[in-house]
Amino acid sequence: METAADLSLVDPMAPVPFMVLQRREETHDTFTLSLEPPEPFQFRPGQFNMLYPFGIGESAISISGDPAAPRRLVHTIRRVGNVTAALDRLRPGDVVGVRGPFGNPWPLDEARGGDLVFVAGGIGLAPLRPAIAWAVSHRDDYRRVVVLIGARTPADIVFVEQVQEWRGQFDLEVGVTVDAADHAWRGPVGVVTSLIPGADFEPSEALAMICGPEIMMRFTAAELVKRGVTTDRIHVSVERNMKCGIGFCGHCQFGPYFVCRDGPVFRYDRVERLLTVKEV
Amino acid sequence: MPSLEEQLAAHPFARGLVPEQVRTLESCIDGETTWVTDAFLVSADGEADHCYLLVEGAAVISADSPGRGRRSIQTIHAGDVVGWSWLFPPHRWAFDATALTETRALVLDGAKLRFAIDDDPAFGLEIVRRVGALVADRLNATRLQLLDLYGNRG
Amino acid sequence: MGRDGVDRLISILEDRGFTVMGPTVRDGAIVHGPLRSTGDLPIGLRDEQGPGTYRLFERGDDALFGYVVGPSSPKMNFHPAETVLWKGSSDLTRADPAPEPPRFAFIGVRACELAAIAIQDRVFLGSGAVDRIYASNRSGSFMVAVNCVEPGATCFCASMDTGPRARTGYDLAMTEVIGDGIHHFVVEAGSDIGAEVLTELGARLAAADEIETAERLVGEAAGKMGRSLDTVGIKELLYAAAEDPYWEEIAARCLTCANCTMVCPTCFCSTVEDRGELANGSAERVRKWDSCFNFEFSLVHGGPHRVSPASRYRQWMTHKLASWYDQFDTSGCVGCGRCITWCPVGIDITAEAAAFRARGGDRA
User: Fold this and answer.
1) Would an 8 Å CB–CB cutoff place A213 in contact with chain B?
2) What is the pTM of this model?
3) Is A279 in Cβ contact with C306 (below 8 Å)?
4) A109, A152, C141, C353: which sits with the fewest CB atoms below 10 Å from its CB?
C-alpha cells in the first residue's frame, strides 16, 4: 500500500477559517453572508461549500456570489436548523470554517451560442445567481438570456436589488411571479411554470437551468418539455444530506449518484426517473 | 386595427375550430372592451353574462376579504380567457378580476354562447373542451400554489 | 509448517514493527483482536451460523482456523467506527496532532475479507479523493490470508466470485490441513515482503502431494457453500424492482436496526459528530460509522428523504448489489454472509435477491 505521499496534500476535511465581512437580511428567513477568503477563492457557478460555525456542525450551502469576484465568497442561507441558525448569528469580524468548493457546475460552456433559460424557485435563485452573473458578463456568448423567478410572496424574493438591476438591462428578459400577493403587487401571480409559455426563447436552441425544490423542478421541466426543450438540455440542481462533500460519507446517495461528487447539477434526463421514484 | 372577426380568428381560444364553428363563435361577439389599470373586468357575485378573450394587457384574479385586503390569486395574460362562470349555473362570478395594466378584450355573449352550444353539439363539444382545458390549467396552477412549491429548499 | 510456524510468523511480524491482529474469542464470538501467539486464536472452535444465529462449539481437534468470519473485520482498523477528523479552537486553528500511522498485520484473513478490503480501497483511495484516515491506517499493512476449507451456512463467496481461495491482496496465504495424524499449514507468498517473511520463517518446502491435498480441500469448499446468490443481471433486476411492493414485505420484518451495515465489511457510510470541550473552548469533529437504515441518515431540512423502512432496506440492498457497480465498478457484496447471521430477524439477502428474481420473472 503506497499512499502515504497523498497525505501531504491539503486535508479536504479540515475547515479553513474565513472572516465574515458582511451580513445582510434577504427575507424574513434568509440572509446572505459575504466572507473574506484567506486567498482568492475560485469556484464555478453551481458549486457549493461546507460551512462550519465553530463547534456546531456543518451545512452544505451553494455559493451565491459572482465568480469574477474571488476575494469575496458569498453564501445565501435559509434558517432551517441549528447549523444555519448558528450561521445566522455570525457578525462581521467573526470566523466561519469553509471547505470546498465541491460539486459539478452549471454547463455554461455547453450553452454557448444558444439561448439560456434560468428558472429559479424561492431560494433556488441563490445557486443560479453565479451562473446568471456569468452569463451577464459573457453576454456575447449567448443569444437570448431569460431569467424566470418564482417566490411565495413578494417579500420572499431574494436579491431584490439585483433582480431590479437585471430587469433594467435590455438584453435580459426577467420574469418574476409570486404565489400570493396583496394588491400592491403589480407583477404576475401564479407559479413560476406559468411564465414559461410566454417567455422569449427558441426551445430547440435553449439550454435550461432550474433550481428550486424537487417538485418545482419537476413541474418546470415538464413545462419546458411542453415548449419543446429536450430533457438532455435541461439541468437541475439536486439537494441531499451531505456530511463530507467528497463521496465518502454516503449520505447524499441518489440512485447510482453521489450528489456531492456527481452533482449537485444533473442533466435532467439522467435523473428524471429517480426524481419520480418515491424516497430514493 | 384588425376587425373583431380577425382578432377572434387569431385568438388562441378559436385555434382549431373549423371555419363554420368560427362563424358560430363570431355570432356570439358582443363588441370589445378596454379597461384602465385597476378597473374591474368582473366582480364576485356579479352576473356572469359574458366571456372575455384577452387581446392586450393582463388581469389578475383576486378576492377581497375584510381585514385581509385584496389577495391576488392568478394572473391572466393576453391570449387567455377570463371566466367560465357564464357556462355553468347559476352564472355568477366567483372571484374578482381587475386589470393590471390597460387591458383590452373581445367580449362574447354568455347567453348566445350557451344557446349555440346546445344548438350545435359539435361546436358545443369544442367550446366545452376549451373551457375544460382552461379549468384544468387553472386548477393545476392553483394546486401548485397550494403545494408551496418553493417552501423547502435551504 | 506446523502450529509453531504460525507462532514464529507472529513474532517475525512483531519484530518488523507490525501490530499483529487476528481472530480471538470475545463474548462468545470470534472477533479481531491483538495476537501475541497462537494461544490467542480460537483453537479447536467452530462457529455455527444461520439467519439470526451464531454459536461457538468445540470441534474436537486443534484447528487454529476451523471457523469462518465473525461480526468484525479488518474494516474496524482501516475505517474505524470512530475517528477524530479535526480538532481546534474557535479561531479554527487546528490542534489535532498528526498521529503516527499504525502498521497492521492481519492473520487469518479470509478471501471474502480481502475482497472487501479491495472494495474499500476503491471507495477511499481509488474514486477521486483520497481518504486520509483510511490511507494512513491501510498503508503498509500485511495480510496473512487463510483459505477456507469449511464454509459456513451463511457463506456465499463462491457466488460473488471472491473465494474461498484468496486470490490477490495477500502477502501470505495459508491452507490449514488436518487429517490422520497430520496438522500443518501450506503457505504461499503473494508479495515481495510476503516472500521475505516466508524465507525468514524457514519452513520446509511443501511436498507435491501436500500441495495437492490443500488445493483439493479449498476446491471442494467452493461446492460446500451454505448459500448462493445468482448475480446474473442483478443490477438491472433491482433497478427495475424499485417500485415493487415486495420491499414492503421485507420491511415488515426489518427492524432497521442497522446491524447488517455494522457487520458488513464493505459498508462505508459515516456521519460527523461535533463535540465541544467547555473547559478549554476547543471542539472536535468526530467521524462515526453511520447507516442508511438510520432515520436521520437522509435528513434534509423538512425531513428525511427515506422515511419508510422499505425505502431504507431498498437503499441498502440496491446499493450493495446494483448501484455499487455504477459507483465503483464492482459489487458491494463479497458473500461473507455476516448480514444474514447478524440480522436479529434473519433477513437473508440471498433469499431476497432470489425473491426479486422470481418476481422479475413474473413481471416479464
Assistant:
1) yes
2) 0.90
3) yes
4) A109
